[in-house]
Amino acid sequence: MQKRAMMQRASDAFANKADCLVCGGGMRQGVQHWHYVCARCGYEAGDLQPAINDSSAHNAIDEADREAGLRAIRTENFREVVGLIAANLPVAAKKLLDVGCAHGWFLEQAAGRFDVLGIEPDEAVRAKTAAKGLPVRGGYFPQALLPGETFDAIVFNDVIEHIPDIDSALAACRERLNPGGVLVLNLPNSKGLFYRVSKFFAAMGWTSPFERMWQKGFPSPHVHFFGTRNLAELVDKHQMRLVREVQLPSIRAKGMLERMRYSTHESTLNMYLQYIGAMAILPFTKLFQSDVIVCLFAVNPK
After folding, report:
1. 2, 44, 145, 204: least surrounded by Cβ within 10 Å?
2. Which residues of 42-60 are buried (b: 16+ CB within 10 A; e: fewer)?
3. CB distance 180 to 90 below 8 Å
4. 8 A C-beta contact, residue 51 and residue 59
């Protein structure tokens, strides 16, 4: 009864707080007390709080395992994203901003084609990236930018879904893009196979895979989950239209175990169960939507 009452209070608080930020429809509680879904457009929200620069939150992550697990797949995917951007910009377009650049892997891939700048709010991560000689500023977007500073491409790699006030971030992107510029959102897909499987298990009572998908308990958890359709509807409100959408691999066998191991609050049993399940599904993933989508938006002509 106490748990049910807590869930009801959380649901009521969310319902009174806001309707769906995409279509204005009513949000209903999902498979967890902090998880909400719009029945009209399918947008999903998580009532999770970020704790960037909080040392206790950082203790939940083994950064060495995280880097070992993520670097291979992110580097491969980032090469494709750089090529996608270059193919959709004029040859003379050079200035690229990477928002939430983390370890600087995307900056490294893009530096050969663009004049790059990164922004990273996590001071510990920013310091390591700057030590590599990469151009990165501390702080949040757009506050870390100089007055009047604009770009030909603004990129969010696994970042936009972490930003609570996403409307303000998108409005700032529109203001900071040069004519002919592009906004690139690389993010998890709510229609992806692994996300949908994790949500099914959460509804059955096994919540660990679903919580990992949302990065619950991490310094910067997810607060949004989109599919291409509702994401395009949201961005369209800011005078930017979807011009390209591609799907990228969300997992590879190489580095998968390290990727799952970096959460130090995950039990060993749960980690290996998820690993075995992911490896079993891996050969069939190409038959379904990927858990990673890249959407490229262009500014609407006046």
Report:
1. 2
2. bbbbbbbebbbeeeebbeb
3. yes
4. no
DSSP class of residue 248?
E
In this structure, what are the phi and psi dihedrals at residue 114, rounded to the nearest 5 degrees? -135, 160
Sheet strands side by side (includes 151-157): 136-138, 115-120, 95-99, 151-157, 177-188, 292-299, 240-248
- For helices 268-281 and 193-204, give the axis angle rounded to 10 degrees: 130
Tell me how crowded residue 199 is: count the other CB atoms within 10 A of its CB: 21
- Torsion (CA) 195, 201, 204, 206 in degrees, nearest 10: -120
